[in-house]
Amino acid sequence: MKKIISIAAVGALLLTLAGCAGGSTSGDSASGPKPVDQLVVGFAQVGAESGWRTANTTNIQDSFKEAGIELKFSDAQQKQENQIKAIRSYIQQKVDVIAFSPVVETGWDAVLNEAKAANIPVVLTDRAVDSQDDSLYESFLGSDFVEEGKKAGQWVVDSYKDSTTPVNIIQLEGTTGAAPAIDRAEGFADAIGSDAKFKIVASQTGDFTRAGGKQVTEALLKSNPDVNLIYAHNDDMALGAIEAIEAAGKKPGVDIKIVSVDAVKDGMQALADGKINYIVECSPLLGQQLVDIVKQINDGKTPEKRIITEETTFDQAQAVTALPTRQY
Ligand code: GZL
Fold this sequence. Notes:
- By secondary structure, the chain is an alpha/beta fold.
- The strands form 2 sheets. The chain has a 6-stranded parallel beta sheet, with helices on both faces.
- The chain binds beta-D-galactofuranose (GZL).
- The site of beta-D-galactofuranose has 15 residues, from helix 2 and strand 9.
């Protein structure tokens, strides 16, 4: 009888230890933090729709390589169902942390509850979700998009402060339902709402792509020939708009002013060349901060719930100065 009890006791001890080796890196597991070089992170990226996204992917992959942490990576081609599939795959693989940039704000509670049930912490990077349950993610790391829209709108208000005629604006929106699209529109409207001379005569999504920006601008210029300014939610759509404006025989930055967001290299070059008038920076360099959050979680620490990145703005002269040392 004694022999059976001792075998049962050893079995129970082994099960307890095995239980700590599951998907959790949280400090509450009896086994404590994992060695950093044994951590595995699953990252579900939006896609490769823009220069910003490419820079974001490169920076995250380089940061995890430098940290010696395995990064499983997936590109959802801007489709939510692909991101959800990738997250489920990471849950099956029992990764230690899942990180992703939600392509749109809604529709994540189910899969995030599956990650929670599997005791796998989730970190939101770049874009946010609209879930009411903020226990579904450890932290949000990214920009304040409303503030970015306000900065863009404030430049418009300042630039036209002496104008007494209407200022007709075309808005090129980002991906429908995406946090940056929703919030950049909100911030911009707040800023220009102070004066009725500013009129958004048309607003349409170009899906954050150069092709989308060109196609939408071509159509909207035909129906709004007296437009004064284009507000693009990202540089790629602004660059597409430049092509459409030039094809219409007008001078971008002069006949039709352009305000954009991101400050990626191609956008900064157009700004320096005078084809864009102002760019609000949105930094894609989130990799090191994401590595730090993963390490905090592994050490059983609680990261800040919302970590906002530092960003600035550029006019044409500042772009000329900044371009030579631009990282992305
Ligand atoms: C913003 C990011 C946006 C960029 C676009 O943080 O989500 O998506 O502004 C990118 O260039 O496509």
